[in-house]
Every structure is written in structure tokens, then in C-alpha cells.
Amino acid sequence: MAEVIIAGRILQMNAPTVILRIVGPGAAPITQSQVSAIDYTVANIVTEAMTVGPSATSLTVVDVVSNTLILDDLWGNQDDIGYNFKHAFLTGAIPFPVPGTYQIDYKFTMTSGAAYRCAAQIKTTKIYRAT
Questions:
Q1: Computed over its alpha carbons, how large is the radius of gyration of the chain?
Q2: What is the DSSP letter of 64?
Q3: Is the peptide bond before 25 cis (omega within 30 degrees of 0)?
Q4: H or E segment to which residue 27 belongs
Q5: What angle do CA 40, 44, 47 make, to 5 degrees?
Q6: For 76-85, which contacts have Cβ atoms below 8 Å and span 24 or more sequence positions?
């Protein structure tokens, strides 16, 4: 279902924005009206510790799915097609507390009843402070 997954690197304790192009049957980009729910969990893939979960956290479909593909500075020069899913983590609820590699697992439940999963990985880098 996920045509493009962008993996990135951030400093620990920062809030990333995950952008993806999500396609459905026939490789057409999904739209808000096709999705009834989106849930996600986050885990450190080395320790397997859940930082969001084990119960999934819900996203509001209209807040994260665009009905049109977006080409902007976030997408950069990935391709000339764009993305239609944008999940910006809130700075007050950052699930990346220590350096490592984290996997964000998304579950898209479609209005048809079908469920699709995709994942994104975020690598965090330690913050060094002069104290």
C-alpha cells in the first residue's frame, strides 16, 4: 500500500514529520473518503520497547491524509509526484527518548473494511550538551 517510505534521521527528543505517498488498489493515491481510521504504534527496533503502544494511537484522517498529492519543501526532490500523508508528531509527546532506530507502524482501515499496513523508520542521534 505505501508506495514511498521516507526514512530519516533526527536528534533525540525532537518531533519528526513523516510524509508518505499512500496508494490503494490500482495504485491510485488514497483520499480521505476512502479511509475510516488510521492507527499507529512506535517501537525501538533494537530493544523492541514500545514508546507508543502497545495499544495503537489514532490519528484523525482529515488531519493527515490529503485528497491531492503535495509537492513542497518537505518532499524535496524525492520525485515529481508528491505525497498525500503527513504525520507531524507533537513536541509534547515525542516517542524517541534515546538514540536508536525506531519503527512507526501505521494501520490504515479503509471504508471497504480492508486494512493496510506500512512502516517508517526514524534514526535518532544523541544530543551532546556542554554542561
A1: 15
A2: H
A3: no
A4: none
A5: 140
A6: 78/4, 78/6, 79/4, 81/21, 82/21, 83/4, 83/19, 83/20, 83/21, 84/20, 84/21, 84/22, 84/29, 84/30, 84/31, 85/18, 85/19, 85/20, 85/21, 85/22
10's grid cell:
533526527
Distance CA 82, CA 4 (A): 10
In the β-sheet with 50-59, what is the strand arrangement from edge to edge? 8-11, 115-125, 100-110, 35-44, 50-59
Provide the residue-wise pLDDT of the chain in tens; the chain has 131 residues. Answer: 544 445 566 766 777 889 999 998 788 999 999 999 999 998 888 888 888 776 778 999 999 999 999 999 989 888 999 999 999 887 666 677 778 888 899 999 999 999 999 998 888 887 776 55
Which residues, 6 or more positions from 123, have their beta carbon under 8 angstroms from its beta carbon? 7, 8, 9, 10, 100, 101, 102
